[in-house]
UniProtKB/TrEMBL annotation:
It comes from Candidatus Vogelbacteria bacterium CG22_combo_CG10-13_8_21_14_all_37_9. Gene3D superfamilies: P-loop containing nucleotide triphosphate hydrolases (3.40.50.300). It comes from the Bacteria. InterPro entries: P-loop_NTPase. This is AAA+ ATPase domain-containing protein.
Length: 150
């Protein structure tokens, strides 16, 4: 995990954003709270963690890095829908509205950030990593895969 933390740190130093992509229950949140945040704090980086975009604080002037968990992108919606065997829409209208309101909040962030995204299959993760370097809300990101270490 130290390589991942160092890679994220280098992106932050370059004032870039990071997208951390991995499966459900792979330990992304645990890693961020227990390894990445203490690592950044040791480097004298002021960090705030938000459990999802609903909890982004209004004032982030005194912060160096914002970490936002449970973000969602619609960039790969067609890919996810094509891969789904469900006849219902992949996302409900209510969820789409929530995601769009999150994107409005995410647009306001003007400091380097780490965004955490869940995608479960190898194909879903690879699709994000290989095809998306800019998020729905207009920020460029460097993508990293989070893999559970056994």
């Amino acid at each position: 995990m130290s390589d991942l933390s160092n890679n994220i740190y280098q992106e932050i130093l370059a004032e870039k954003n990071v997208l951390l992509v991995g499966p459900t229950d792979s330990g992304k949140t645990w890693y961020v709270k227990n390894i990445l945040i203490p690592f950044l704090q040791e480097k004298k980086i002021k960090v705030i963690y938000c459990s999802d975009p609903d909890f982004i604080p209004k004032q982030i002037n005194e912060i160096d890095v914002l970490i936002v968990d449970e973000i969602e992108t619609l960039l790969d919606q067609d890919f996810l829908e094509a891969d789904s065997s469900n006849s219902k829409p992949y996302y409900s209208k209510e969820y789409l509205n929530k995601v769009r309101s999150w994107h409005d909040k995410l647009k306001e962030i003007m400091i380097p950030s780490v965004f955490i995204l869940t995608r479960n299959s190898h194909g879903e993760i690879k699709n994000i990593i290989d095809n998306h370097s800019e998020m729905d809300w207009g920020v460029k990101v460097e993508c990293f895969i989070f893999e559970k270490k056994v």
